Hints:
Layout: E1 53-54, E2 60-75, E3 99-103, E4 108-117, E5 120-129, E6 137-145, E7 148-152, E8 181-189, E9 192-199, E10 214-215, E11 220-227, E12 231-242, H1 244-247, E13 252-266, E14 270-280, H2 291-294, E15 301-303, E16 309-311, E17 313-324, E18 329-340, E19 353-368, E20 371-384, E21 389-402
Antiparallel strand pairs: 1-2, 2-3, 2-4, 2-21, 4-5, 5-6, 6-7, 7-8, 8-9, 9-11, 10-12, 11-12, 12-13, 13-14, 14-17, 15-16, 17-18, 18-19, 19-20, 20-21
Amino acid sequence: xxxxxxxxxxxxxxxxxxxxxxxxxxxxxxxxxxxxxxxxxxxxxxxxxxxxxxxxxxxxxxxxxxxxxxxxxxxxxxxxxxxxxxxxxxxxxxxxxxxxxxxxxxxxxxxxxxxxxxxxxxxxxxxxxxxxxxxxxxxxxxxxxxxxxxxxxxxxxxxxxxxxxxxxxxxxxxxxxxxxxxxxxxxxxxxxxxxxxxxxxxxxxxxxxxxxxxxxxxxxxxxxxxxxxxxxxxxxxxxxxxxxxxxxxxxxxxxxxxxxxxxxxxxxxxxxxxxxxxxxxxxxxxxxxxxxxxxxxxxxxxxxxxxxxxxxxxxxxxxxxxxxxxxxxxxxxxxxxxxxxxxxxxxxxxxxxxxxxxxxxxxxxxxxxxxxxxxxxxxxxxxxxxxxxxxxxxxxxxxxxxx
Length: 403
């Protein structure tokens, strides 16, 4: 197979607006800190920093930011979409003998406010991007007051400290993710952070054996502890249920899980990172697709041959190394593995996912604090419940302009 390399040069001329105002605006966050207030949320690279301007005559400061990103993909074996999806290997229709794809769909816009009141600061954050269909789709929409966060943002079950820097959106496979609507309380004391949340309880039910209509009597409960930027552990518990009124199936079971991440410096230039997530009923947290799609690939639960609702046990582990060659160049290499225990005595699951292994290596150049570019090799390997296996390789090159 011949691989033809295409070089794309993108030049962007930004336009700015200057607002003359006597009142002093203040920075959203100190330089070098994550952009989003609600831990562990962040937008863009960790070093990114945006300043605010003041709305005349008010105590409200606003910040507008985001990035423009061009991704160029070459798929050797399977088309894995506009944001690398290793589970695309489950669909034979995605086979290819070589395909190039350019997209700017990951480009992102966000808007932030901070208002000073007599009773503290009220903050809001709104963000969207253009995945998966080129339309502007909501990622975050939340407000914060003191230790409370209400709205849609990252699940309190997930962590960022053990996630490697990668060109792939969402990072390696098997790292807990999701942006549910929620109510969260966070308490910090020195390097220690503890957070609890009540989150939207939707879940992914397999359509095998006829499926059923899902029902959510109780919210998902999560708790997370984090020590600085080195270690974090979280847990969740949720009820999975079906709706007898619409589907004739009245069943319930319990989902639960524990996730942990580690970031261990190895000298001044290298960091070892690790992730582990285990539990039952976690499929929708470990797949980057809506619940309706996840139900056919990584379900939280299924209806067994006796008509009972059963949660799906799953395990995920990942390790990576990050190395800074100098102040501008860095690399990451890592591998992760996700496995789920689908029943092999139900015919509909024979072609379903048993395990997926994802590995990558990259080289990234931070040209300056607003421009980065890089190249990354990605390899995915899946095994089905019936023992069949597939593997695929992809090369991704990206150019990202922060603003």
